[in-house]
Amino acid sequence: MLNFKKITKSLILGAFASAFVPIFTSMVPVSVQAQEAPKQGWFKVCSKQGKNDICNVQYNIRAETGQLVTGVSLLTVKGEVNRKIFQVIVPTGRAIAPGIEVQIDKNKANKFPYSFCFPDRCLADIQMSDAVINALKKGNKIAITTTNFQGKKNPVNLSLKGFTAVFDGPPLKRNELAQKQKKLQEDLQKKAEETRKKLEEAQKKAKEAN
Q: Do 36 and 44 touch, CB atoms closer than 8 A?
């Protein structure tokens, strides 16, 4: 008899590892300004694992350093296992007990319990229903709130613009995903260079003032 819970967990981890765009750096405090850093928008990647077809619709917000601030993954598994998972990815340094609050527009907020943590990120998920999918398609934004280790709430908003077209549309091809990764790296490097120049200018002015 198949252990569907074990298989599903394995598939989710496999899908996350293979489909999630991996640009993680050392974890440092994230400021509110991090939300103004390059965003990848909604995109969809699909892969086959054994007898299962897995599609992952994602949206990621990163700091200028490349650090993940908040990520959302909507995993659809079809085949030997049939599951729909709504997953949220956040940095470490979070209070585990409160979980993650996810609210679509002004609808009732859902609590996502943490599933597991890695050295650089924590994941929380719930089973994704058709009602949730429809709410996402009709919505304008997702408000995701975590509680940090100091007990303070950290809200982050994700736009739902373009979600429906991506969710119902075809996945990115391998070369399209590679181009997307390259563009993100270039944007992050540009932001880092701008920050470095501003810091050098500030230090120069400080020396001249003395």
A: no
